[in-house]
Amino acid sequence: MTIAELCLPAMIVLIIATILPAKVLGRKEYDNANPRNPAFYTPGFRARSLGAHQNGMEAFPFFAAAVLLAEMRAGQQGTIDMLATGFVLARLVYVGCYMADKPAARSIVWAAGFALNLAIFVSPLSVGR
Question: What are 113-128's pLDDT values in tens digits?
């Protein structure tokens, strides 16, 4: 299994972990019978936690497709691994910026992560056929 492939479950863990602080810190108000109650995710930290979680869910399909396609198209594995690791690290910083309510930094990190994802996707183009 490649490093890039291991980054796929790492992203899933990060996505799940992103919503946990809102649920743990708001455990007295959290209703597990109604986990998607919008009233629970009021403005502030809980809303940011949910936003980071949802953005992770939105980013994951393109990341997974980019990694799998780049590997299927015989891109340079070292490059794919490096870019995938960079993407996961960027997402980790993105979540930190989201939780800390740093929207400008968050947008810059999001753009960097998107650029890394695009680079993974097009990486097989650099391999001569």
Answer: 999 999 999 999 987 6
Confirm whether 129 is domain-assigned. no
Q: Provide the whole-model pTM.
A: 0.92
Domain CATH for 24: 1.20.120.550
Half-sphere exposure of residue 114, counting CA atoms within 13 Å on the CB side?
8
Structure tokens at 119: 């680079």
* Owner of token pair 């869910």: 57
Distances (CA, A) of 85 to 1, 44, 49, 54, 57: 14, 30, 23, 21, 18
Name the DSSP class of 127. Answer: S
Residue 49 CA to residue 124 CA, distance in Å, equals: 35
What residues make up the domain containing 100?
3-124
